[in-house]
Design goal:
The complex is a heterotrimer. By secondary structure, chain A is of the alpha/beta class. Chain A has two domains: 249 residues, P-loop containing nucleotide triphosphate hydrolases (Rossmann fold, 3-Layer(aba) Sandwich); 73 residues. In chain A, 35% of the residues lie in helices and 24% in strands. Chain A has 13 helices and 14 strands. Chain A is elongated and about 75 Å long. Chain B starts with a helix and ends in a 5-residue tail after the last helix. In chain B, helix 5 runs parallel beside helix 10. In chain B, strand 2 and strand 3 form a beta hairpin. By secondary structure, chain C is α/β, with parallel strands linked by helices. Chain C has a single domain, classed as SGNH hydrolase (Rossmann fold, 3-Layer(aba) Sandwich), CATH 3.40.50. In chain C, 50% of the residues lie in helices and 10% in strands. In chain C, strands 2-1-3-4-5 form a five-stranded parallel beta sheet, with helices on both faces. Chain C is elongated and about 95 Å long. The chains are: A alpha/beta, B mainly alpha, C alpha/beta.
Chain lengths: 348, 328, 273
């Protein structure tokens, strides 16, 4: 999975992005910048919820917005679509200021903020018709988006009879009505079953392939990893990094789990190897399901290139290796890297 | 403009699909027959008791005159009775029956009694819900992220509210007329009603009194009821923008309307209460020539008070709605 | 797939817009009518009520009665509020063997003869008298006792000065004559029962004799007027409230109580038939 994400990111090979949390305002807009967030701040009741956030999203890319719950993701997204007015800073969509000219800027935006809430007492069609009328969209487009999200069979049923997955699809249909240049999805996989999540990912990639920019927020690194080209990481109301997903993952220290027939001998061997750092203390950052699959495994930090040599050395020493597993970095381990290990992994 | 019309269409359809209006109609269809039945019983008992309406009217005048001589009745009741006695006398002297039982008369009386409480409550069913339900349901996020300015959205809701208030009032009159007609007959449009009584202290000035057909009286009364219903609707609209929960805004407005109808009955000595909107809701007293709740109130005064309240409510609604952060 | 409800908005929109226009029009009309009223409808002149009479009671299926006058007819003092009127008509109905309908008790507490005489000029009272077969009447008590009042409370008899009344008696008697005349001129055939005055202060010895003289004179005058008219019965009540007056007077020591009214009712019924 990891290699898959990496190769994909490499294939797209955007300009290498060094973590750049405070891009200067008034940066010249390139033609392909669809969303530009400039020094956004929001203070609510004296508390600075969002502190000087800046990032750009380009045409045709899937942009991840990663952060633990309570980090300010939703507030930022609400500011992107004019639901919340920023205290300072601005948001440009296709060059239009969202808060000065929402009627012009939001024409290019489709969004689902948190759950896709629609009018339950009306049918899916009536809901879409309602939103279509707000933005000069014809009936043929309603049929089209209903087909795109494969809701055409149930489109004339009341929304209150829909499952969560169907509501999500109806929400996306609504967001696509105006043929937006930018699609904003807030935790889109929340509450979906694995099959639904998979379908959604494929769907989002398809939209991006057609040239639409998609802005996806998530608190799961794996989600971003599977879906996005670039990512901004937010924590405590600040963007602590914006980067190419591949680069970022390369930066994050990946862990390798070792399982030996004789754990004591194995541990001794690994500890004596200069290329390997035994990191029992990092256990808490690792995905529990992975640890569960390999009970008694020893977490280490080691470069991928060095692994074959270490395995060979074990074999030579007669220490039998049961399994070696590279582990996807978690958001917590990423934070550990980005903030130099000194931060509390809880996030908020 | 064509897009504004689409917005109004959207809002109108939403209220309709939500079955708000159906519920109001249902309430009317249940309650009006009850009132008609009560009115029928009253008409029957007076028919048994009196040879004709003149005898009944004479007795009413006498009874009210006798009640006036009692020291125990409060001053405002006295004033009301004095006006009533003089009005009834005016009808009797001109040989005009003020109480012919017919559907038009019933509708007028019903509207007159409904203006203070019943109609405001029905209006609140739409007005308290039209903004706050979008918040409660979370649909406001969809609504406000479309490329339409917020004030246009709110304006479309206000226009829709106006349309529904009108619809509710006309339906109230229509249901009341149609149901009452089954019992009292559908006539009475052309029967005369006297308007233009002016109260000068305890004396009724009849110099400007003239007769209008009951149909015209109904139209005028509906117009005045519409004005006060709109005021209630607009204030409820503001409250639902500010309070965000349908239940809370409904309770707030019901408390205001009910306390207004209580105040109107007891606040004659508290003069500054006349600047409250809820004391001014019953505009039909001016048409009838009954004494107003508080001395010194006139039609112009009440219209002005209601108008100022309504205007302020609209200003506050728009100011709040266009600035609000939608955080949850 | 394009199933849509095309009918809802056109109908709903048009209908509600029409309603709004109608109500705005009504509102405008109400303002115009209040601030610059037009002449209004022309109404036919009120027709006088049809006259009763000419027909003997025996030929009628129902006798119509009205009651006019002061607090005694209104029933003040009777805890049940009925007074003598209904009871006497019930007795009359029994003796006549046909229904007697009370077409209204138009008595007003505190009424004086002068005011009643004025009311009898009004259309309401004229019609009421014209339509009636029987008029029950009490009047004069307020005229007499208010004239006699010299500042104190009537109920205690303290402020009553008989001499004040005596001087004004001719004037007061003329008022009674006017009442009788007006009733008669409105309805030549109506039978009137006039309940004469009694002395509510009989138990106060210092007032007993002087008041007796005045009441005798008043009631005698009423008898004389009745005799002139021929169809007015004066119902004597003075004797009913002499002995044990406490049993028949209400707590205000002025008006009869329930039992007192019952005694009056019997006499009124007898006087009418």
């Amino acid at each position: 999975m990891l290699t898959d994400a990496n190769s994909k990111a490499q294939a797209r090979s955007h300009a290498p992005a060094i973590p750049d949390p405070a891009a200067p305002a008034g940066q010249p807009l390139s033609d392909e910048t669809v969303l530009s967030v400039e020094r956004l701040c929001k203070t609510i009741r004296g508390r600075r919820i969002i502190d000087d956030i800046s990032f750009d999203v380009r045409a045709g890319e899937v942009y991840g917005f990663l952060g633990p719950n309570g980090s300010g993701k939703t507030t930022t997204i609400r500011m992107l679509v004019d639901l919340v007015k920023p205290t300072s800073g601005r948001v440009l969509v296709c060059g239009e200021d969202v808060h000065r000219h929402p009627d012009r800027a939001l024409r290019h935006v489709g969004c689902i903020v948190e759950n896709p809430e629609m009018y339950g007492y009306m049918t899916g069609w009536e809901n879409l018709d309602l939103f279509a009328r707000m933005q000069e969209v014809g009936e043929s487009r309603i049929e089209e988006v209903a087909r795109i999200v494969r809701l055409d069979e149930r489109i004339h049923d009341k929304v209150k009879t829909y499952s969560l997955g169907m509501r999500q699809r109806l929400g996306i249909a609504q967001a696509l009505l105006g043929a937006p240049k930018l699609l904003i999805l807030d935790e889109p996989t929340n509450g979906l079953d694995p099959k639904g999540i998979k379908e959604l990912r494929a769907f989002i990639r398809e939209l991006a392939a057609q040239g639409m920019s998609v802005f996806v927020s998530s608190h799961l690194l794996s989600e971003i990893q599977l879906l996005c080209d670039r990512v901004a990481i937010i924590d405590g109301g600040k963007v602590i990094a914006t980067s190419d997903v591949g680069e970022m993952l390369a930066q994050a220290e990946a862990h390798t789990l070792w399982l030996f027939e004789d754990p004591a001998a194995g541990r001794g061997l690994l500890s004596s190897d200069a290329r390997v750092v035994v990191a029992d203390g990092d256990r808490e950052f690792l995905d529990e399901s992975v640890l569960l699959a390999l009970p008694g495994a020893i977490p280490t930090r080691v470069r991928q290139d060095d692994i074959p040599d270490v395995v060979a050395r074990c074999a030579q020493a007669g220490v039998r290796v049961v399994a070696v597993q590279r582990v996807v970095p978690t958001l917590e381990s990423l934070f550990l890297t980005l903030t130099g290990g000194g931060r509390d992994a809880e996030g908020s | 403009m064509p897009r504004d019309l689409e917005l109004i269409r959207n809002e109108t359809v939403k209220v309709w699909k939500k079955k708000r209006f159906a519920v109001i109609l249902l309430i009317l269809l249940v309650l009006v027959p009850i009132f008609v039945y009560a009115q029928m019983k009253i008409a029957q008992s007076s028919q048994d008791k009196f040879a004709d309406w003149r005898a009944e009217l004479r007795q009413r005048i006498t009874d009210n005159t006798n009640a006036l001589s009692s020291d125990r009745i409060p001053e405002e009741w006295k004033k009301w009775r004095i006006a009533l006695v003089q009005q009834l006398q005016y009808y009797l002297d001109r040989d005009v029956n003020p109480n012919t039982p017919n559907a038009v008369r019933f509708t007028n009386t019903f509207l007159q009694n409904a203006v203070g409480l019943f109609i405001p409550l029905m209006v609140l069913a739409v007005a308290s819900d039209i903004v706050s339900s979008e918040r409660a349901g979370g649909t406001i996020k969809m609504l406000l992220t479309r490329p339409v300015r917020r004030w246009r959205i709110l304006a479309s809701k206000l226009v829709t509210l106006t349309l529904y208030v009108s619809l509710i009032l006309v339906s109230t009159a229509a249901v009341s007329y149609l149901v009452a007609g089954l019992v009292f007959g559908y006539g009475g449009w052309a029967e005369p009603v006297f308007v233009g009584f002016k109260l000068q202290g305890t004396d009724l000035d009849t110099s400007a009194v003239h007769a209008v057909p009951q149909g015209v009286y109904m139209l005028m009364q509906l117009g005045l009821v519409w004005f006060s219903a709109m005021t209630v609707a607009v204030i409820a609209f503001m409250v639902s923008v500010l309070v965000r929960s349908t239940a809370a805004s409904l309770v707030t407005m019901m408390a205001a309307v009910i306390s207004g109808s209580i105040l109107a009955n007891m606040a004659s000595s508290w003069h500054s209460a006349k600047y409250l909107f809820n004391v001014n809701l019953d505009l039909s007293v001016y048409l009838q020539g009954s004494p107003p709740p508080i001395e010194g109130m006139t039609l112009a005064f009440s219209l002005l008070v209601l108008g100022v309240w309504a205007l302020a409510a609209i200003v506050v609604s728009f100011a709040a709605f266009t600035r609000q952060d939608i955080l949850a | 797939m394009g199933r849509k409800q095309g009918w809802l908005w056109p109908i709903l929109g048009t209908l509600s817009l029409l309603c709004t226009a109608l109500l705005l029009f009504g509102f405008g009309w109400a303002l115009k009518d209040t601030w610059s009223p037009s002449a209004g409808m022309t109404l036919p002149d009120p027709a006088p009520a049809p006259q009763q009479g000419g027909v003997a009671w025996a030929d009628k299926s129902e006798i119509k009665a009205i009651a006019i006058g002061d607090s005694l007819t209104h029933g003040t003092g009777d805890a049940t509020g009925k007074g003598y009127v209904e009871a006497s008509l019930a007795l009359l109905s029994k003796s006549l063997g046909k229904p007697v309908r009370l077409d209204g008790n138009l008595a007003i507490a505190g009424l004086e003869a002068a005011k009643l005489s004025q009311l009898l000029d009004g259309k309401a009272m004229k019609d009421a008298i014209a339509e009636a077969d029987v008029v029950l009447l009490t009047i004069g008590g307020n005229d007499l006792f208010r004239s006699a009042q010299d500042g104190g409370s009537i109920a205690e008899g303290s402020g009553v000065d008989p001499e004040l009344v005596r001087a004004r008696l001719p004037e007061l008697e003329a008022r009674l004559a006017a009442v009788f005349n007006k009733i008669r001129s409105n309805n030549p055939s109506v039978r009137v029962a006039y309940v004469a005055l009694y002395n509510p202060f009989y138990e106060l010895e210092e007032l007993r004799t002087p008041l007796a003289g005045i009441l005798e004179q008043w009631n005698g005058n009423a008898e004389r007027l009745a005799a002139e008219d021929g169809n007015i019965a004066v119902v004597p009540t003075a004797d009913l409230f002499r002995a044990q007056s406490g049993l028949y007077l209400s707590s205000d020591h002025f008006h009869p109580n329930e039992a007192g009214y019952a005694r009056i009712a019997v006499r009124v019924a007898q006087a009418l038939n």
